[in-house]
Amino acid sequence: MTLTQTLLLTIFGTGLFSFILFQTLHFRRQTRLLKSNISHTIKSYQDIKRIAKLGSYRIHLKEYNMLYWSPELYEIFGVDPLTFQPSLQSVIAMMHPADAENGSKRLLQAVRNKENYDNHYRIIRPDGTICYGHTRGEIVVDENGEPTYLLGTFQDITDLAAMQQELAAVHRKLENIIAYSSDLIAVFDLEGRALILSPSHKVLLGYSIDRMKQTTLFDYIHPDDREELLEGWQYLLQSGVSRRRTLRFLDAQNRVVILEIQAVLIPPAQDGESATVLSISRDITARLNAEEAVRKADRLSAVGQMAAGIAHEIRNPLTTLRGFLELMDLASEESIHRYTAIMKQEIEHINAIVEELLLLAKPTRGDARHISLIPFLREMIHLMTPQALLERVDIFSYFPDTSPCVYGDEQHLRQVMINIMKNSLEALHDGGHITLAIREEMEQVVIIVSDNGIGIKPADLARLGEPFYTTKSTGTGLGLAVCQQILEAHNGTLHISSELGVGTQIEIRLPRCTMHSED
After folding, report:
1. How confident is the model at residue 77 (pLDDT cuts 50, 70, 90)?
2. What angle do CA 266, 271, 277 make, to 5 degrees?
3. pLDDT at 392 > cutoff 60
4. How large is the average pLDDT for residues 386-398?
5. What domains are there in the chain, each with its CATH number?
6. How many CB atoms neighbour CB 387 within 10 A?
7. Could you tell me which residue ranges the PAC domain spans (predicted)?
């Protein structure tokens, strides 16, 4: 027991002594805990400043000398605390020459106007590296309202400045791409109003950029393509991406401009923003005109071949008709009836040739509408089943759960399917099977018809689709040409692959539309 404790015990007695001793010990524990908390808080504050690369300073404004310079600033400025004497002059001396004059002016202006100080400037460290800094300060006035101190912070924002410079460089590159691109680059809101338009829009369409920004995409579409654009726009908003589409627009002179368009939905970059649509379009008017010129030349070249084929196909039944007409002058009544039946068959053959030629000459889509493929193909299977049973052929189908949709003339597409399935049946001489399947791709639907028939020779496969060319003993050779013409009018294609002794597979590709239905 200490002398102090002995005196307290003698003066106040045991009870009061114990109370005073308890309070003293409790106060000491609280004091140690408070000191520990303060030390921990100071340490955390220093760590935060170090991690944030944030230092603080205090400047006496009457003498412009540095009263305080935090340890973090020595590290940020890259100077040695033992040799560097912080002062306003030494800081200004380390400023980048392009920033020093403005930095001094901003400080004097803040002091003169008694306003907060906020500035960005660069520091050149002793090792030659550059530090980008952001300083903020508050003017402290005395009792007379005169500026006395500047309390401030300085933060190293070199990393942020580097990111900003990189972002600015990317932005400049994007601006140059948009400015000098011959393609049409645009950003639209979800209503189709233009937010950004490349100058190529004005060059190609002839409208001013300001005018086009005050209207919507739908104001320039060809009336006949408006429905397709609307369908594509709705599909884009639902799926996030669009199929590549070929659409016609009208320029300022009301001339048709054909664009190939690809678009994507851009999600909002941050809360409160709206999604946008990025579109890249290419003028393919000249290319399509050139392709059409080539097609016309090809058609003119094919006219001679077709004329020879028509003459051959029709001359044979005409020769038969002529012969029987001559025989009828000398024939009996019974023979005349027999001759008449044969003549009717030949006339029907001529009529079939003429009808297929007319179909070959009509590439239009006719009465186009949305067609749900699974019900459509099941109807085709039902239609061909009686003939398949007679030929001892099984028809199988493999369809997805939901029915994809195409847009076209159902009657013409039905004719395509009947022609192809009949060809498959004729390739199966003694039983076999035909399979119908659907494969969905990003922009297309593929109908696959395959059989395990005799197959097609490579030489014959290369000529399929030529008018009047056929490998069958009967037929005109126009059926497949008509199918190709119909599919071309629907922006579709037909591809045939075959292997002798294995079978044949036909792929019909058609653009898909947005409508889906449950099977």
Report:
1. very high
2. 15
3. yes
4. 86
5. 51-158 (3.30.450.20), 181-283 (3.30.450.20), 285-361 (1.10.287.130), 363-518 (3.30.565.10)
6. 13
7. 117-169
